[in-house]
Amino acid sequence: MTRITELMRSDAFNGQRVLVVGGSSGIGLELARGFRDLGAGVEAAGSNPDKLRTAAGDPPNHDIVFQRLDVRDTQAVGDYFAAQSRVDVVINAAGVARPHREHDIDVCLDVIDINLNGTARVCMAARAHLKRDHGDAASIVNIASMLSYFGDAEVPGYCASKGGVVQLTRSLAQAYAEDGIRVNAIAPGYIDTDMTHAQKEDPDFNAAVLRRSAIQRWGETEDLVGAAAFLASPAAAFITGVTLAVDGGYGVG
After folding, report:
1. What share of the chain in percent tops pLDDT 70?
2. Is residue 176 annotated as part of the catalytic site, yes or no?
3. Engineered SS bond to 116: which of 15, 22, 164, 208, CB 3.0-4.6 Å?
4. SS3 for 249?
5. Which residue in 233, 139, 227 sits closest to 183, CA to CA?
6. Cα(102)–Cα(84) distance, integer angstroms
7. What is the DSSP string of 62-119?
8. Which positions ≥6 away from 188 have C-beta within 8 Å?
9. Catalytic annotation, pick one of 80, 149, 158, 190
């Protein structure tokens, strides 16, 4: 039993269809598992064929359907949603950071295209399907970052894109409310993933993170599941346009 099933009814999302874009690894994969454990039918999409094959063959990912999708391709995103028979919840977790390299303009723009433009493409393609299928539970949850608010010299494209995700979330929350669709975001802090492994292994960097964090540890991917499930659930029926920090108190340090 995962932590999320101890906090919510194990059938909380029974009968619902949850799409996790960027769900083949890291935070996205953990969110896919979490919604599956709460009874949803889950499809996880990603752009890397090797990661998709690995995830599909991993026993902990049973009952999750994996599909390929590149969020930089507007036509592919539209086709992906057109092929869906039902959509109730969409999680936007596709994201990359390329430290140091983002001062190359082409790399910077590619990061923005994935993290921000990709999120916009998915939200806009999903809107009509969520309006049609949602019942009383239409929801989009975007993945922002604590770097939506803080600068980082190594990843200017990442910071700009994640700041944009917060503003996109606010704007779409206003626009989509007329269709009964809530749009919220989560801003993770330092989460222990493959993308942050080198930082966590750096003694000085690790010490600085722990020193500033109120809860003196790195986050685990599972720490984000409860926040996403709450925002996507009827318990958050009067919540839209918010970005919920899940950062162990780093942002208040």
Report:
1. 95
2. no
3. 164
4. coil
5. 139
6. 35
7. TTEEEEE--TT-HHHHHHHHHT-S--SEEEE------TTGGGSHHHHHHHHIIIIIHH
8. 27, 143, 144, 145, 146, 219, 224, 246, 247
9. 158
User: What is the reported pLDDT for 210?
Assistant: 92
- Check residue 132 and give its pLDDT: 80
Indicate the residue type of 53. Answer: R
Fold classified for 3-247: Rossmann fold (3.40.50)
Alpha-carbon gap, residue 219 to 238, rounded angstroms = 27
| Residue boundaries of the structural domains of the chain | 3-247
What's the pTM value of the predicted model, to 2 decimals?
Answer: 0.94
Indicate the DSSP class of residue 193: S
- Tokens found for residue 202: 């750096």
Per-residue pLDDT at 196: 86
